[in-house]
Amino acid sequence: MLFKTLSDYYEKLSKTQSRIEMVNILSEMFKQAAKGEISKLIYMTQGQLAPNFIGIEFGVADKIMEEAIMIATGYNKEEVESEYHKQGDLGEATENLIKSSKLARMSSKKYDVSDVYGSMYKIATISGKGSKEIKIRMLAELIAASDPIEAKYIVKYPLNSLRLGVGDETILEALSLMSTSERSNKSILDRSYNICSDLGEIGEIVLEGGIEAAKNMKVSLFKPIRPALAERLPTASEILNKMGGKCAVEQKYDGFRCQVHKDGNKVKLYSRRLEETTSMMPDIVKAVQDSIKAEKVIFEGEALAYNESTEEFLPFQETIQRKRKYGINEKIKELPLHLMAFDIMYLEGEDLLNKPYETRRELLEKAITGSDVISPSTRIITDSPKEFEEFFENSVENGLEGIVAKDLRSHYIAGARKFSWIKMKRSYRGELSDTLDLVIIGYYRGKGSRAELQFGGLLCAVYNKKRDMFETITKLGTGFTEDQMRKLQELLTKIKVDSKPARVDSLIEPDFWVYPKYVVTVKADEITESPMHTCGRSMQPDGTEAGYALRFPRLVGEEAIRADKSPEDATDTSEVIEMFSQQKKVSLSNK
Ligand code: ATP
Questions:
Q1: Cα 334 to Cα 322: distance, rounded to the nearest angstrom
Q2: Would you say the CB of residue 252 lies under 6 angstroms from ligand 1?
Q3: How many separate domains does the chain show?
Q4: Is 347 found in the same domain as 465?
Q5: What is the pLDDT of residues 379-397, one digit of tens each?
Q6: In this structure, are 248 and 370 located in the same domain?
Q7: What is the DSSP letter of 369?
Q8: From ligand 1's centre to the CA of 178, what distance in Å?
Q9: E strands of 75-134, at which residues?
Q10: How confident is the model at residue 591 (pLDDT cuts 50, 70, 90)?
Q11: Structural domain of residue 259, as residue ranges?
């Protein structure tokens, strides 16, 4: 496919306000792709070069791009910067500069998608002396051979500013439509995605062998599995009821989720977002290499800082200090990590996802014996609400967050939040005090005392995975420090968009729309029904429509933004509905 064709599709994508239309455009685009090309198209459309777990970054800063634009267009620094200032985006600036340039284009070479991808890959991976100059030259060559629209996307792609609004679910639905003319076969692809986390690979498999080939995909080493997630319930009896009267109850540790892949001496670790975190935890890597007997294994647990003298786990605020690129070796001594393992998904060539929890637990315990640093999560198996409650109270007294109950019969349900795992935290008692992770979709101009900061608050949404849409749940105006407001204002101005993005469902119009990118953690007193918000909106018995909203929402946490969560990791609409019904039960039982 010519890069020109791809940029025309990108123009269509960025102009549509309908998600259905977006899927149609993508599916049509994928149909044009050749073998070996569709994976590149998918990564490019997501603004990446490879799946997240490979972790390749472009390493192209605005300054490098500006120099490339100057060489390719003949404009000087002031002209490029002034247009950038006007447009707020270098890609749009380049499009305008080329359109109004009187210079003849330097080259008429027609690049195809693989050429552009190949150059970008080289640009991202080249390092060492002189690499900056090579990057500038390669970018300039691409821009010089492009028409204004192509140039816009050449510039936007490595600067992470494509903002096409395409999410993982959107791509899976488009692949289903491409391959079977049906959107609904996406559910087959969901499973494949949950076990390989690589949309490009799925694209290639579907293109070559159709949807049937995707059905046969198996778990493999060094392709992280999308994590199983937990539902929430507030009492031991409700959890036991839901799980058929008996279940395992494990301590819930508050650290970093860590998926370990081991093949002989080769070990890699992945986070909850499936980014590689191997270099952050050399102590865990060494413990796996030294003490895990299994040759080929994938297992997971929670890594958290541990005080060896008092044998106590440290709070998350301490563990988070290990999240650093430099000075790791000093921090290892100060804050050694302990890995509390809670599941195993693959062992010596066998995919264990469809084995029941109890079988997996036995295999896990055998596989990890003999290490001081890695141990199985502490747990009980019980059918007694009293024993369950005591275990919970005991865990909380020991400084832990609560418990995660596990259905003894259940498979490992990758990439989904299901009742086979149910969490219970101390905070669930009484009022709604569990936090919600919300996506910022818009913001307001500052008025009165906030006028100087130009920041008046946020419009926030939950993610509805079933609809693949962001649905509004609250405006958020309190809980910010001045620093946080400044930071948010700075970050949000950069992702402003002219109109409501296609995957946003909102009845409210904020002063500025932003591209759904950042997640904030919010606490509220209550979930209420509201005609204003689209979260879980449905028809009421009186014929009106209502959704859910938050009462007295406020921002929590020192960092304004949750860097470890992507928009699709935000609280899901179904969780809000569940929390609302729990809250109703609690308030009834308190009457
Ligand atoms: P939270 O903020 O409550 O940790 P989350 O959205 O990150 O929520 P959930 O699936 O809702 O994830 O809750 C389970 C999380 O708890 C897992 O992601 C994992 O990191 C952590 N965890 C700690 N101990 C356990 C355990 N024994 N079993 C499963 N998960 C555990």
A1: 10
A2: yes
A3: 2
A4: no
A5: 999 999 999 999 999 998 8
A6: yes
A7: T
A8: 36
A9: none
A10: very low
A11: 229-424
* CA 301 / ligand 1 centre spacing (Å): 9
Confirm whether residue 467 is marked as ligand binding. no
Does residue 174 belong to any structural domain of this protein?
Answer: no
In one letter, which amino acid is 73? Answer: T
Last residue of a domain, one of 381, 401, 424: 424
Average pLDDT, the chain: 91
Is pLDDT of 219 > 90?
A: yes
pTM of the model: 0.85
| Residues 426, 396 contacting (CB under 8 angstroms) | yes
pLDDT in tens, 340-361: 999 999 999 999 999 999 999 9
Identify the three-state secondary structure at position 18: coil
CA separation for the pair 261, 345 (Å, rounded): 10
Q: Looking at the chain, how many residues does it have?
A: 591
What pairing do the DSSP bridges indicate for beta strands 374-376 and 337-347? parallel
Residues 569 and 526 in one domain: yes
Contacts 24+ apart (CB under 8 A), 509-513: 509/442, 510/441, 510/442, 510/443, 510/444, 510/459, 511/442, 511/443, 511/444, 511/445, 511/456, 512/442, 512/443, 512/444, 512/445, 513/441, 513/442
On whether 302 is known to bind a ligand per the annotation, the reply is: yes
From 521, 541, 417, 535, select the one nearest 479 (Cα to Cα). 521
- Known active-site residue 252: yes
- In 3D space, the residue among 160, 159, 142 whose CA is nearest the CA of residue 151 turns out to be 142
